[in-house]
Amino acid sequence: MASQQEVIVVAGHICLDIIPEMKAVSGTLHELLVPGKLVDTGPAVLSTGGAVSNTGLALHRLGFPVRLMGKIGDDLFGRAVQDILRSYSPQLAETMVVAKGEASSYTIVINPPLVDRVFLHCTGANDTFHAADVVEDTVKQAGMFHFGYPPLMRTMYMEEGKELKAALRKAKSCGATVSLDMAKPDPASDAGAADWKRILSRVLPYVDLFLPSFDEIVYMLRRDVYDELSAKAGGGELIPFATRELLTSLADELIAKGAAVAAIKLGEHGLYAKTTSDAGRFRDIAGRRPDGWESEWLDQEYYATCYKVEAAGTTGAGDCTIAGFLAGWNTGRSMADTMKSAVGVGACNVEKADAVTGVPSWQRVRSRIDAGWESRAMALPLEGLVKVSSGLYSKPDRS
Fold first, then answer.
1. How many angstroms separate the first and last alpha carbons of the chain?
2. Which of 19, 123, 129, 211 has its CB 3.0 to 4.6 Å from that of 109, i.e. a possible disulfide?
3. Per 3-state DSSP, what percentage of the chain is helix, strand, and coil (rounded to 5)?
4. Which domains does the chain have, with CATH numbers?
5. What pLDDT, in 10s, does the model give residues 206-264?
6. Which SUPFAM superfamilies match (predicted)?
7. Rg of the Cα trace of the chain?
């Protein structure tokens, strides 16, 4: 049962989302937000956002023991974040880092019907998260440590990721399986100008499971390819341009830099993953797994399509996909089943408009998968991948 599994610590970026109810308007957002104009709105919805909230609460809803380690200020917004977390479980707020005198991160979401959204974001205390904020006593009690969104946390990417490396190394030294997620930096920001290839070279030796999105990792490792694909996309999504050759090349580079598992999120097209061929690397992270488990993970390459659902929204879909992957890993499942679990939890998420309420119990997710949940067709140009089971694709047998 999930409740018997080791604790999962989810650390990194967290914020308070303030979402005013907006009425239908005619014209563009520019015509709506005119200086001096009073815009009539309805009540505001308050929710938590960011990796700590989305991935952490998804794992909690699945039924796993979770500790959250985001940084907030001792202000009104920080107290609101704590109150929201306590509404799920009082324990979820206990390990949050409260910084005296600092401002909590928040986002004002301006979202009129039928008009593109605008986000007003304050990074707040996320920018001052240091390795010292990772509490060793908490991590030592956990089997997994997941860190999310370092590109949105200034201290984590400054000095070539010095503090991020120290935070992940601390978690690794505590004996936890370490997982890392990213966010795509704004090219015009300091994060966008950071040397992410160098940062990843420094931190990935301390990362067991690396789970970036396609856009993020192409930007970080192949800036020339990112610019080329962006021009082809004309402002649209880059994922339709993903090929097996490019995905394999990216994964190989990430594994060479130190990751044991490189899983690349592909949005509505699913999840691709490849693993190291170094058996010793997996033995380092065996934890409480049964003997021989690494044979189901060693030197593998998989592609899982998404399951068919009626989508209500995609907020938090990537974070919930990660929660499903961590859940599969945490329960000792094979790589094939873990990837099914990942896209399964992601599919449940999009059945609701918000970030986490679509996520049911772990048993319910697995029941839908085991009952033959219909998967979407493979829509990407990933020639050479052979379908081996519903929703799952693998490289051909090399024997």
1. 37
2. 19
3. 45, 20, 35
4. 2-25+43-394 (3.40.1190.20)
5. 999 999 999 999 999 999 999 999 999 998 889 999 999 999 999 999 999 999 999 99
6. Ribokinase-like (SSF53613)
7. 20
